[in-house]
Amino acid sequence: MQNGFRVGELHHVEPSLNSVTGPAGTTRLEPKVMQVLVCLAAQAGQVVPKERLMRTVWPDTFVGDDVLTRCISELRRVFGDDVKEPRFIQTIPKSGYRLIAGVSSNTAHDLAAPGRDAAKESIPAGAQATRRRLALILVGVVLLTGVAVGGWWIASTRRGPGAPPPQATVTQLTANPPDFLVTSAQISPDGTYLAYADPSGIQVRVNDTGETERIADTRGMDVYAWSGDGTRIRAAACDTAICTGWDLSLVGGTRRRSGAVWPVTDSVISTPDGSRLLR
Q: CA 273, 274, 279: angle at the middle one, nearest 5?
């Protein structure tokens, strides 16, 4: 598994690089998230108990279920999976998780590559003609799809002047009572998570499922941004004069000072990639 493998037909996993490459491009994973994926892939199709995953990935550290839950949520985000109708990772209630997508070794795939040209030369003429017909059919399907999309676009732009514009929908993501108000909140760049602060500390909500976990020892902190890759929460701890920036890891709960410091009287906003603060 450490040499790389495929999950399904479209996702190429490189554990040594902590990367997953799929239709949406290459995504870098935190090392612990990758280790969870490797454990699941090594026993693809089988239920892997939560306890075994935590002993394997965090052998010398005590962690709670929330840490593993965040790893699974991150993997689902990378694979574009749905917790209610999973195609990759299935939750087995009160037990563990199961990788239900097919897993194949990259080695076999790569060894087959050098022989492709020779195999092509040996294809019979009838098979080649069949392939050409299939290619023409595929081109026809693509053209018909383009015509259909173009027709929809033209129809949508011809909406009468009196027709009402599309209405935005508002969804409430928190349910804090009036005496326990949310003091700050930020949605992750990909929309998967909501990080918000209230008097008890910083909470992280998985927007699709509603699962919410509190990050320990964050009471009094506020959320002001996310990192550009969506793996860290930018938080601020303020005293009477100075605010200090902190980076909180979404997985594992580790934290470090970000190096950002500003007067408590200043209002700051973060650049979209979370790399700079603007006053």
A: 120
Task: Output the six-digit token pair for 81.
Answer: 């999976």
Q: pLDDT for 194-241, tens place per residue? A: 889 988 888 888 888 778 888 888 888 998 888 888 888 888 999 888
Last residue of a domain, one of 56, 90, 107: 107
Distance CA 171, CA 208 (A): 12
Distance (Å, whole) CA 195 – CA 73: 14
Q: Is the dihedral of CA 206, 211, 212, 216 positive or negative?
A: negative
Of 107, 134, 159, at which residue does a domain stop? 107
Q: What is the CA radius of gyration of the chain?
A: 24
Domain that holds residue 267: 184-278
Residue 232's nearest CA partner among 261, 269, 279, 189 is 189
Instruction: Report d(CA 57, CA 36) in Å as an integer.
Output: 7
Tally of domains in the chain = 2
CB-based burial label for 63 (10 Å; 0-12, 13-18, 19+): middle
* Least confident piece of the model among 33-37, 45-49, 98-102, 198-202: 198-202
Q: Is the pLDDT of residue 41 over 70?
A: yes
pTM over the 0.70 mark = no
